[in-house]
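Researcher: Here's the sequence for the chain we discussed earlier.
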Amino acid sequence: MRIYEVHEAKQTILRRQLWDETEIPERLMDGIETIFGERISPAEVVRRILDDVRHRGDAAVQEWTRKIDRVDVSDLLVNQQQMEDAREQVSEETIAALELAAERIREFHLHQPALSWIHNNTDGTLGQMVRPIQRVGVYVPGGTAPLPSSLLMCAIPARVAGVPHIAAITPPSRDTGLPHPSILVAAAIAGVDNVYVAGGAQAIAALTFGTESIQIVDKICGPGNLFTTLAKRQVFGIVGVDGLAGPTETVVIADESADPSFAAADLLAQAEHDILASAILLTPSRRVAEEVQAAVMAQIEDLSRSEVIAGSLARNSGIVITESLAQALELSNEYAPEHLCLLLEDPWSHLGHIQNAGGVFLGEYSFEVLGDYVAGPSHTMPTGGTARFASPINVNDFVKIISVIGLNNSALEKIGPSAERIASTEGLTAHAAAVARRLYKPGRS
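Model: Thanks. This is the structure I predict for it:
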C-alpha cells in the first residue's frame, strides 16, 4: 500500500473519474465478445438486454441468465416451499444475527419523521401529503459475495415508510438455480412479498417493464455490478432509482492516538469488496502512515480474498500524509467518501467540520463494518463523490410528497394580480386569462 504526498494523491487516488472515463478491463470486453460476437460497450450491452426483456418478458430473462450466469432457471418466482427450505440450510446463529440486524435497522428508521402537514389561515389551506411509493424492487447482489445484509438495508426502511408491496430480485447460484439461502432467509425476516431469480441488467429490465412472472415496480433500489448500475441509469425516468452505486470506498482519518492495526483492518475490510474499491488513509503523522502500511502487509496474508484486496490496494487506494488534521478533513470533504472513519483522539470535536460523507464513524469502536451489518443506518450509501448531494437509503427514499392547495376568495384578491402579471411576463396569455376570468368575473366586488 503506497504512501503519497498530498499533491500526488490529488492527481491519483483522490481524483474522481467520470463514468465515461472508466477503463473497461480487457477480460470484461473479452466476455462481451464471447456472448455478443462483437466488442460492444457495456452500455450497449445493457441497452440490448433491456430492449429484449421489454419485448419478450420471461423468455428473455431466462435466456440472458443462461448466457451470462450459465444457469438454467425454469421459474423466476421463488415459491413458499423454497423459502422454507432455505431456512433449513442456514445456521441458527446466522439467522439470529440477521434478526438482530433487522431489528436495529427497523428501530433506527422508525425515528425518522416523514409526516404530512396542513396549515390553515385566512387565505385557505396549504400543506403536503406524504404517501408511500406503492411498489418497490430491491436488487440484491448474489454473485461472488451474496449480500443478505443489503436486502435488509433496503427493504426494512421501505417497510417502515409504509410501502405495501416489496419485491426482491437476486441472481441464481450455479448449484441450485435459486438465490443463496441466506438471501431468502433475509427476505423472510424483512417481510418481502416476492423474491425473483434474476441478476444484472435483465433483472432491472424485468422490474421496470414487467414480465409474465415479474411485476412492475415504481422504484428500484440496491447496489449491483457495472451492468446493474448502467441498467438503472438507462431506466431512470421510467421508474425511480435510489442512485448509481459505484465501487465501495472508505476514507480513514487518523491521528497519533490511532491504533495502526485497527486502521489497517478497516482499510482491508473495504478493499475486500472489489478490485475497484478504494481504501484511503489520511494522516498528518508519518509514523502512523508507516505503521499502518506495515500492518496492512502483515494482516493481508491471513485473509481469504487477499488477491482481490491486493488489486484494490494497487489501483485506487493508498496512504496520504497531510500537513495537518485540518487539511485531512478538507481533503475528505472534497473527496466526499461513502464511508468516513475518524480514528481520532476526540472524534466528536471534529464532527462539525464534516460536510460531505455517506456516513461518519466516530472512534475505534464505531468502525465501518458494524455499520455494514448491525449498527442501524442503511449501509447503502452514496459513492463516487455523490455524497456531495445524495444521502444513504432512508425512509424518505420510499415516500413521495403531494402538495395540497385549497385557497379561497381572499387569497385570490391578494395574490391573483401577481400571478396574472407573471403569466403575462412569460407570454402565457391563457395562464393570465385563467386568473383574470376569476378576478374580474361580472358581479364580483
